[in-house]
Amino acid sequence: MKHLSILAILCMFALTSCANMNKAQTGAVGGAAGGALIGQMIGHNTEATLIGAAVGTMLGYIVGNEMDKYDRQQLNHVYERGVSNRTSSWVNPDNGNQYNVTPQPAYTDPTTSRVCRKAEIDAVIDGKMDKTYTTACRDENGHWQLQN
User: Fold this and answer.
1) Per-residue DSSP letter, 142
2) Do 136 and 119 form a contact (C-beta atoms < 8 A)?
3) What are phi and psi for residue 68, nearest 5 degrees?
4) How many Cα neighbours within 13 Å face the side chain of 127?
5) Three-state DSSP class for 46?
C-alpha cells in the first residue's frame, strides 16, 4: 500500500505539471489521485482504489471546470456586447488571472455563412504575460463558439 500511495502522488505531480492541460483536466487528474489514495486507505483493496479514483476524477473535473467558467462567461460577454476596437478587462476573482480583450467588428464567414468575430486577448496567467488571437462564431442556437 505504501508503494501505491507514493506512486499515486508522483503521478499526480507529474500529470498536473503538464502545460497543455486546462483547469478542468488538471482538477480531474488531481481528483483521481486523491480519490485513489482515499479509496485505498478506506477499503484497502483494488476495487476501493478504483472507485475512489473514479469519484475523485469526476469531482476534480467539476471543480476545475467551474474555475474556468467565469472567464468563459466574461469572454462571451465581450463577443456579445463588446464595442469593436475597445478593450474590456477583468480579473478572475478565484485565481487572480487578468484579461484584456479587444474585439473586432463582426463579419459573416463566406464559407459557413455564420456571424463571426475576432478578438485580441492579452492575459496575465500565473504571473506570465501571454497574447493570443481568437475567433468565435455563432452556432445554430446563436451562442458564440470559439473556433480552432
Assistant:
1) S
2) yes
3) -80, -20
4) 0
5) helix
Cβ within 8 Å of residue 77, ≥6 positions away: 88
CB neighbourhood size of 122 (10 A): 15
User: Which CA distances in Å does 85 have to 24, 26, 78, 120, 131?
Assistant: 31, 34, 11, 9, 16
Quick: pLDDT tens for 49-74: 666 566 556 545 444 444 478 888 89
Binning the chain into helix, strand and coil, the percentages to the nearest 5 are 50, 25, 25
pLDDT tens for each residue of 16-58: 444 445 555 555 555 555 555 565 566 666 665 666 566 556 5
Phi/psi for 4 (5° steps) reads -65, -40
- Please name the residues in contact with 68: beta carbons below 8 A apart, sequence gap of 6 or more: 22, 23, 24
C-alpha cell at 65: 471546470
Cell of residue 102, nine digits: 479587444
Q: Is the pTM of this model over 0.70?
A: no
DSSP 4-29: HHHHHHHHHHHHHT-TT--HHHHHHH
Quote the distance between the C-alpha of residue 84 and its chain's center.
Answer: 26
